[in-house]
Amino acid sequence: MKPAIVVRVGFCGYRDHCDGSNRLQVFDFTNSCDEFKNRVSGVSATGGGDSPEDVLGGLNAAVTSMTWRNDTRVLLHIGDYPPHGRRFNNTDDDYPNGDPNGLTAEQVLGKMRSAGIHYFFGRITQCTETMISVFKSIIGEFSVFDFKSTPDPEGLVEKFFDATCSAINTAITLRE
Fold first, then answer.
1. Domain ranges of the chain
2. What CA–CA distances, in Å, run from 151 to 124, 126, 154, 159, 164?
3. Model confidence, pTM
4. What superkingdom does the record give (predicted)?
5. How far is Cα of residue 42 from the mean position of the Cα atoms in its chain?
């Protein structure tokens, strides 16, 4: 008889460096869907300055500040803009030389790999194409889910649910 699978979900939201203490929102893992829903329902997309966001700070917080206990570890990153630095974008960037806290994609993605976390990305805009390429050059192939052109909230929720299930199934299959 197989042991019961315990699914734990957490959330790490990020904004940009100019948003100060509101830059990161971390809700550690829980196995309660109601608790997770209550926590996340209070999150809103606010703030920001330039186009790039604190992607590396958000991923770093997800990897290092959350309690990863399960053997199967999935990080589904959903984003509309890349990290700071010319390496990732050619838009208006207050930090064209990269993350002002000194984080690099190699450091953050390396920590993720060392922790046995499977990375998946949900693309909202084309602005993340270069980031996806750079990340793949560092950690190899990963699944990219298309969240673009989803005009209604119900459609977005359905795409998110499908992507989450697919990411978990893929990670479990890779483990077996």
1. 9-175
2. 11, 16, 9, 12, 19
3. 0.90
4. Eukaryota
5. 18
Nearest Cα to Cα of residue 75 among 83, 65, 67, 63: 63
CATH number belonging to domain 9-175? 3.40.50.410
* Strand partners for 79: 123
Instruction: Write out pLDDT tens, residues 10-53.
Output: 999 999 998 888 899 999 999 998 898 888 888 877 777 789 99
Which residue's structure tokens are 């298309």?
Answer: 146
Rounded distance, CA 34 to CA 55, Å? 27
